[in-house]
Each structure stands twice: as C-alpha cells, then as structure tokens.
Design a protein that fits this description.
- The chain is an alpha/beta fold and 442 residues long.
- The chain folds into two domains: 273 residues, no CATH class; 55 residues, no CATH class.
- The chain is 24% helix and 37% strand.
- Strand 1 and strand 2 form a beta hairpin.
- It is globular, with a radius of gyration of 21 Å.
Length: 442
C-alpha cells in the first residue's frame, strides 16, 4: 500500500528540484534521455525523499536525515585530481585496472584505460549518453525495484557521469576492474553517478567499487548490472567516509541462467549510509552468494536493504550479513526473498547477525520471505548479541590481553563473511581494514 503524498516540501526536496531546473540543459543525453530525466523528476516531485511511512525506509527516514541538499559538484580541477591520485591505494595488492572518478567525473589521466583485454570496452557514461550508445538505449533503466524508489528517480534525473562497461560473449577479463570514486573537494557537494555494466553470455569479470567520501558530501550512486547466461561475475563494493557523509547506493542486477554471481558489500564510516541491492533471477540454475559486513562506531548509521527476486526456478541463493556496532551506532538490515509462481526448486537462505560492542548501539534486523511456489527450500535467521564472555575469558586465560581478545573475536566474526571472497589479495586487504578499524577503536 502506497503512503500518502507529501503536501509540504522540505528544503532539501526544493533544493534538489531547483538544482535539476538549473542543470537540465547541461546534462548529457539526447531527446530520449532528456524525456527519461523529465519523467524521473516528476516521479520524484510526486514521491519526495523516502521516509518512515514507506516500509522499506522505516529505519532510515531519509526525509528527516537529509536536512539540506548540497550544490551539485562541478568538474574537478587540478587540486581535486591531485588529492584523488592515491584514492583506493589500500587495495594496491589486488593488481586491478583502476578507473578513477573525482567528484563524480571520470578522470582519464588517472585511469588505466590503455591495453584493454579482448572483449572488454570501457567508456564514460557522460560520453555514452551524449553519443547515444546502443547499450544505453537497450539497457538503461531496464531493471527497476519492485515498488519503485524515490532515490533512484532522483539519480535518473540528475545522473551526470559514471562508467559503461561491456564484456563480450565468452571473454575473460583477467584483472579486476576497480572503479575508484573519490570525493575530495574542499566544499560540500552532491554527486549523482550512474553506471551500466553488461556482461554477455559465458563471460567472466570481477568488478570492484571503492568509495571514499569526506567533507559533508552527499552521494547517490546507481549501478545497473546485466549478467548473461553462463557468465561468472564477482562484484565488491567498499565504502569508507567521514562522519558527515550521506551515501546512498543502489545495485540493480538481472541474472541470466546457469551463471555464478558473488556480491560483497563492506562499510566502515559515514553519517548515513544506505546500500540497496535489487537482484532479479531471470534465468534458471544460477548460483549466487550475497554477503556483506559493516563496522560502525560513534553515531554512524548504515542500512543494507536487499530484495532477491526469484523469477526463474532452480536457483541457489546464499546470503550472509554481519554488523559490528560500537558507541551509539545503528545497523539496519532488511532482506526479502521473493519466489515467484513457477520458480520451483528455488533454494534460498538468508542470515543476518549483529555484534553489539556497547549498550548504546542498536541493531534492527528484518528478514522476510514471500513464497508463491510450493517446491522450494527457503529460510532466514537473525541474531543480535554481545561478545561471548566465555570465549573472551578462554583467550585471556591463555595470556592474551582483554583488548586483543576482543579484537580476535571481532575479526573471527567478520571474517566469516569476508572469507567468501575468491580473490586472495582483496580478501587480505579487507581483513586489514577490519584490523585498522579495531585499532582506531582502541
């Protein structure tokens, strides 16, 4: 049931609509794209920023949390590019192809665009929109959340740049493609990036996103992922930001038949972070592993909202999400598995676990199942609790100091989710991030 429309506009909503009015003639795209933008801003005007009256936003009232709207980020200058030169270098051991974005714009001189593997093409979303790229016409906006989304509509209206990646049928991309999003401007700004990745039949690729945001930035990032039959795709998204950053990201994926899809999201920091995953199983026999971990402290708020929509039968889906919450932080997990009529033989399991390191921390877990088929195996679970004092005592009795004992237990807790990443270098880098977070906590 839809919530009633807002009759009073907030200052942030008004500012966003003014920003679109001022930028509409400068945004890239032909007449069809401009019409798409106009439809999207009308949808946003009707819906406004999502709030707690919408069930999916019950725990993250963006209308209340987003007090104002920062001005749209401009093209990065030399100083911003210099500050972004080393962005994402904590993943240097991954030996990846770096594609660098500064304040939402692809920066070719910082990116590794030479010598692309056979079957791999990479170009700027702004260029693709301006040139009328056939991939844009065929796929942009083809995947939508089941109930629509106001933040997605806003992104469609204001999308400026991002990346368009195409992996041809049967191609194997040996090096991971690392999308580095750096927001390093000296003044607060808002960024709207849109990316489209099309992986054709039988292809294989690893796609890594890392987002580094500081200085009160507001980021709305959308990735549309089209995965063909028999393809193998790994997607990892890493976010780290300052305590005044607002970050909303949406992954919308269509998964073909008999493929492999592994996804991992990792969050440390940010004032308000919302990771949305809308996965559509369009082909039979696909195996998916969907995992994530969040480490929060202070008054940080992170929300993971996942919808796994099984439209085809015979798919296996495993989901595991871990949250470590310290201080007055708040972790939210909302997961829904939908099994459509006819999607028989679906095997889907969901587990979310939260570890509270302080009495003031809060975990909200809401796993759901919607099943409209009768020959399925589906289940979900959720746990929330403090560190096991017996295990802590066991370690301390063997000469390990209390803080180190706690750190070992936290690392083991989070490591269960991280160990599913196939790339050893990336797996080690994320375990290093966990160790760094624990050191900063101490």
């Amino acid at each position: 049931m839809n919530a009633p429309l807002h009759t009073t506009r907030t200052e942030a909503e008004l500012a966003l609509e003014r920003a679109f009015a001022a930028a509409r003639s400068k945004l890239p795209g032909d007449g069809k794209i401009q019409a798409l933008r106009e439809d999207a801003i009308r949808a946003f005007d009707a819906e406004g920023l999502p709030d707690r009256r919408l069930e999916d936003w019950k725990y993250t009232d963006l209308r209340a949390l987003m007090r104002d709207a920062k001005p749209l980020a401009g093209m990065p200058g030399a100083d911003a590019k210099a500050r972004a030169k080393d962005a994402g270098r904590s993943l240097a051991d991954m030996d990846a192809r770096r594609i660098v974005f500064v304040d939402g714009s692809l920066v070719a001189e910082l990116s590794d665009l030479a010598g692309l593997e056979k079957g791999l093409t990479i170009r700027s979303m702004a260029q693709a929109l301006a040139a009328g790229d056939p991939l844009i016409a065929a796929h942009l906006g083809s995947i939508s959340p089941p109930d629509g989304d106001g933040t997605l509509a806003l992104n469609t209206a204001l999308m400026s740049d991002g990346v368009v990646i195409h992996v041809a049928s049967g191609a194997t991309v040996e090096r991971p493609v690392h999308l580095v999003f750096s927001a390093t401007g000296e003044k607060p700004a808002s960024v709207f990036t849109r990316s489209l990745v099309v992986i054709e039949q039988g292809a294989r690729v690893m796609l890594v996103e890392s987002h580094e945001c500081f200085n009160a930035y507001q980021v709305n990032a959308v990735l549309e992922l089209i995965v063909g039959d028999n393809a193998h795709v790994d997607h990892i998204k890493i976010f780290g930001g300052g305590n005044d950053v607002l970050h909303v990201s949406s992954l919308m994926a269509s998964l073909g038949a008999r493929g492999r899809f592994n996804d991992f999201s990792f969050t440390t920091g940010g004032a308000v972070v919302r990771n949305q995953l809308f996965l559509r199983f369009d082909g039979e026999g696909t195996l998916a592993s969907i995992r994530g971990a969040s480490l929060l402290k202070g008054k940080q708020h992170a929300d993971t909202t996942l919808v796994a929509d099984h439209k085809a039968g015979g798919c296996q889906n495993r989901e595991m999400f871990k949250s470590v919450l310290d201080g007055e932080s708040r972790g939210v997990f909302q997961g829904k598995i939908i099994v459509r009529p006819g999607a028989q033989k679906t095997d889907a399991k969901m587990m979310t676990q939260a570890l509270l390191l302080s009495e003031q921390a809060e975990a909200d877990n809401k796993p759901e199942l919607e099943i409209y088929a009768d020959d399925v195996q589906c289940g979900h679970g959720a746990t929330t609790g403090a560190l096991d004092q017996d295990l802590k005592f066991y370690l301390m009795a063997r000469g390990i100091p209390a803080k180190e004992a706690e750190a070992l237990l936290v690392q083991a807790f989070v490591g269960e989710a991280i160990e599913g990443i196939e790339h050893a270098g990336l797996r080690d880098a994320l375990l290093g991030h966990v160790a760094a977070w624990l050191s900063a906590r101490e």
